[in-house]
Amino acid sequence: MSLHVQLSPEALENLRRQRRNSTISSILVSVLTITVVFLVMGVFLLDLNIKESPTIVTYEASTQVDETITEKKVNTQVMKKPSAPSSSMTKVIAAASSDSPVSIPVPDVDVTTPSMEFGDGADFGGGWGSAGDFGSGGGFKAIPSTMRRRCDPQDRMNRLKESGGTAQGEEAVVKALDFLQKTQNADGSWDATHPVAMTGLALLAYLGHCETPQSKKYGDTVLKAITYLVNVGLKNNGRLTNKPDNSIQWVYDHGIATYALAEAYTFCSKLNINIPDIKKVMKDAGDIVMDGQAESGGWNYRYAPSANDGDNSVGFWQIQAMKACKHTGIWTDSQFKKHARRALDWLEKVQGPDGAIGYRSNPNQSSGLTGGGVLAFQMWDESNHKAVKKGVQWISKNATFRSLNDHGSNLYYHYYFMQAMLNYGGKEWDKHNDMVRDPLIKAQNPDGSWTQSVGSHGPINVHMATCLATMMLEVYYRFLPGSAK
What we know:
The structure is a single chain. By secondary structure, the chain is mainly α. The chain has one domain (about 55-130, about 145-480): Glycosyltransferase, CATH 1.50.10.20. Helices cover about 50% and strands about 5% of the residues. The chain contains 17 helices and 4 strands. A two-stranded antiparallel sheet has the order 1-2. A two-stranded antiparallel ribbon has the order 3-4. Helix 2 (about 90-95) packs across helix 7, helix 9 crosses helix 10 and helix 10 packs antiparallel against helix 11 (about 335-350). The N and C termini lie far apart (about 135 Å). Mean pLDDT is about 80; it is low at about 1-5 and about 45-140.
């Protein structure tokens, strides 16, 4: 006999309900389990990819300077960087983390669109401000046109060829910049005897090739050089020198360094690279140049405003520095007019009948400085002045360039000759360029430097010779040439 058990309908319904609940519970548990597993894995993987946020180190100088010109101490302020840097700023930030005693600020990059307005556009005569923007320039479009065109590699090579330069000359420039990079001091300067002036010249050579703190290859080098000059100015109330007030050399230091720092400020401000205190130092340095002009219209050792003469070798650097300061936009244009006019009046006064411009009021003393006088007129919108034509005639007749051991090949003089003759153009420029270009390139040492054993005041050190030669080979694109004669 078999026993059959039959469940009631209510019991069957309860059993079905329990099975449904059990199935649903199993599904929910499985889903939750999978979710938890993925969460755990995500946290684990995230932890592996977390990197320590880099820090931005900047300096903040106090506003008081010891009257004995003791070194100003720099305070560091550390801030966590909120986000990863753009690729264009990688080299700049790398400089801040390098093991170097130089105090290197990390530039802040604003995301706002830079202003497209700058100055009055009437720079360096008729041809010095008329070029349009180049398509690939990016932020460089805000740079004054007189400087910006050096930043477009294709345009630079086109103008190199059109103006009489060669690919070999451009290779020599890069070799020289490599040499300077390798020989930079740990604090961002060059040389030991005249570090401020040599740093200014080196910085001008880099900027002449449009190398800025954002440059991939030379960005660290340029940033350290700028920072060195800013630090010098901070501890000296704007005086860009390591020499005492009674030194006859500090005016050279200051003029050259002000010229370089003004160009650097223009690039950095228009590219939204914020280097702490550069504007303050720039303003103080530029004021020193203008306030130091002598009653004669020239400049002298120790900046003697009451002097009735002028040292043109010193003065030419002040004239170049003033033009670079004008580009910064820190001062109004009217502030430069009286200084430029007085400077040109002085040079016209001391020019000889044959067109020579010398060391002081005597045109026959160091008449190789004539190129600097011609360039001064060209820089300040006087390319048609009779002094320019007379000066160019003197250069065409008297300038020689054979070897760097020849007195006629003095690089200090030819630094001015090349610029003045390119701006003048025509057959005079073609003749001068053919005389200088190839011998200068061939004279470069294998390590990228130039050396010169002769000069108007003795041998030129290797850093000065290298910087002057480099800027001579950058002349084809460093500025836009003037078209007026």
